[in-house]
Design a protein that fits this description.
The chain is an alpha+beta fold. The chain contains 2 helices and 3 strands, in the order αβαββ. Helix content is 33%, strand content 20%. Strands 1-2-3 form a 3-stranded mixed beta sheet.
């Protein structure tokens, strides 16, 4: 499911003049492989940490990416 969502995110943002910050909302903390994939794609993951809070991973700085 995350692969499809990441592909859709990549596809949609290619039509925008300015490249927006990208993030995926996922149901739990990303495992190492998913975190690495999102980092490589320049996207953050947002996931719940408890009933009322969320955490966000940090994508690479735009200067570091591509």
């Amino acid at each position: 499911m995350c692969w499809a969502a990441l592909g859709e995110l990549q596809d949609v943002t290619r039509f925008m003049d300015q490249r927006p910050d990208r993030a995926l909302l996922i149901p739990s903390a990303p495992d190492h492989d998913l975190a690495e994939l999102l980092h490589h794609a320049g996207a953050a993951a947002i996931c719940p940490v408890d009933r009322h809070g969320f955490a966000r991973t940090q994508p690479p700085n735009r200067d570091e990416h591509h």
